[in-house]
Specification:
By secondary structure, the chain is an alpha/beta fold. It has a single domain, classed as Rossmann fold. Helix content is 33%, strand content 13%. It is built from eight helices and six strands. The protein has helices at 24-35, 49-59, 92-100, 118-135, 146-157, 181-190, 197-201, 247-257, and strands spanning 77-81, 104-107, 139-144, 162-168, 208-213, 231-236. A six-stranded parallel β-sheet has the order 2-1-3-4-5-6, sandwiched between helices. The N and C termini lie far apart (36 Å).
């Protein structure tokens, strides 16, 4: 049973970054200016791809692949962070597959993901530390779309507690361009983002895998790649919104979680 008040969590592990001295509205504008490109340098996906995204969300429900033979490294805990405006219910099937592969997956436990607000980030750090204590060692973190930025933020803040980060269709190179920019801006006016984009731009100290699709109709797929030396790139096909459902993505994810260090090409 995970307890937020578990006394075994190291006091040094509860560090939280100091907040900006800007007013909330200024933080919202500045944060979005760093997340979203307004110069036209980064192109949004073609607008017609939104039709494919919606059709996939409604009609694409493939069978989950057979679980991998329990790989070395399986059985460790995996924190799965859902995409923007989704909750743990959106990753339930994915987590069930990882469990069948021998992992111990956990949702983020915060309901709807409305973005990297200060409250969400604080609770997410607590969740990571709780699972780390339960595991008795570092855990892996998986982030879907915007959830991938939150996963990377955790790995930057607590590299000693994270084994590997895996992102699914997550914009790693900021600023990005998105066909749902209006939703991001709407949420940011209500709850300003609390991520340090300059911090996120620095290479992770832990291995990572970036799974992305060139068919992405939500964010610019070019920004979902990373040239970090510890990052393995995996290109798949299909829309953004159903990347968690794709059998090949689940297989790649299970394989990535079992790999120590950067994955080798063709492995």
């Amino acid at each position: 049973m995970i307890s937020p008040s578990n006394p075994r969590i190291p006091a040094s592990a509860t560090r939280v970054r100091r907040n900006s001295t800007r007013a909330p509205d200024d933080r919202a504008r500045a944060g979005l200016g760093e997340f979203l490109d307004r110069t036209g340098t980064v192109r949004r996906p073609p607008i017609w791809r939104l039709g494919s995204e919606i059709a996939s969300l409604l009609f694409y429900h493939p069978r989950s692949p057979k679980p991998m033979e329990k790989p070395a490294g399986a059985s460790h805990s995996v924190l799965v962070i859902p995409a923007f405006l989704t909750s743990d219910s959106a990753t339930r099937s994915l987590r069930a597959f990882l469990e069948r592969c021998g992992y111990r997956p956990f949702g983020w436990g915060q309901g709807l993901n409305i973005g990297p607000t200060r409250q969400n980030m604080e609770k997410l750090r607590e969740r990571l530390l709780q699972l780390r204590v339960q595991q008795g060692g570092p855990i892996s973190v998986v982030g879907v779309s915007l959830g991938g930025l939150l996963a990377r933020s955790l790995a930057h803040d607590f590299p000693e507690h994270v084994l590997r980060v895996v992102t699914l269709a997550s914009p790693l190179r900021l600023p990005t361009a998105s066909n749902i920019e209006f939703l991001l801006r709407l949420c940011a006016r209500w709850r300003p983002p609390a991520l340090d984009t300059l911090h996120l731009a620095s290479p992770l100290a832990v291995p990572s895998t970036a799974i992305y699709t060139c068919d992405d109709g939500i964010v610019a797929w070019e920004t979902c790649r990373s040239d970090e030396p510890n990052c393995t790139l995996v290109q798949v096909r299909g829309p953004h919104l159903t990347i968690c459902r794709r059998p090949e993505v689940r297989r790649e994810l299970a394989h990535a979680l079992a790999t120590r260090g950067p994955m080798q090409a063709g492995s």
